[in-house]
Amino acid sequence: MGFGLSTDLLPIVFFLIAMIGYTTFGAMAGVYAIIPAIYPSTIRATGTGFVFGFSRLIGTLGPYLAGLLIAAHLSESYCIFIMSLPLLASSICMIFVKPFLEQLD
Asked: Could you give the CA distance from residue 57 to residue 55 in angstroms, rounded to a whole number?
């Protein structure tokens, strides 16, 4: 949310861009570690492939959604806020993964 509201302050924007990239790549590294633990060994490769394939499919919707938001003539800060909501949703989902993994042990 701060990223979409600070478009006039260039140093803050650069810092937030770096933090978004850092946390996004960190989350992906965590997903690579967590996904194999979720599936039983008989379907582990299939399940992991499905998750990563599905995430790539959903990732293609980002540029399409950005185009729709820009075409709707919304403000830049509102567009950035809307585009940051999936990151927030994935962060919330990761909170619920740990108890699930503890049940698998």
From this structure: 5
Residue-range definition of the domain harbouring residue 28: 2-104
Separation of alpha carbons 9 and 54, rounded Å: 36
Place of tokens 């503890």: 102
If pLDDT is split at 50, 70 and 90, which confidence band does 4 have?
A: low
Digit-coded pLDDT (tens) for 36-94: 888 888 998 998 899 888 888 888 888 898 899 989 998 888 888 888 888 788 778 77
d(CA 11, CA 70): 24
Separation between Cα atoms, residue 5 and residue 17, nearest integer Å: 13
Number of domains composing the chain: 1
With b meaning 16 or more CB within 10 Å and e meaning fewer, what string describes 40-60?
A: eeeeeeeebeebeeeeeeeee
Q: Determine the length of the chain.
A: 105
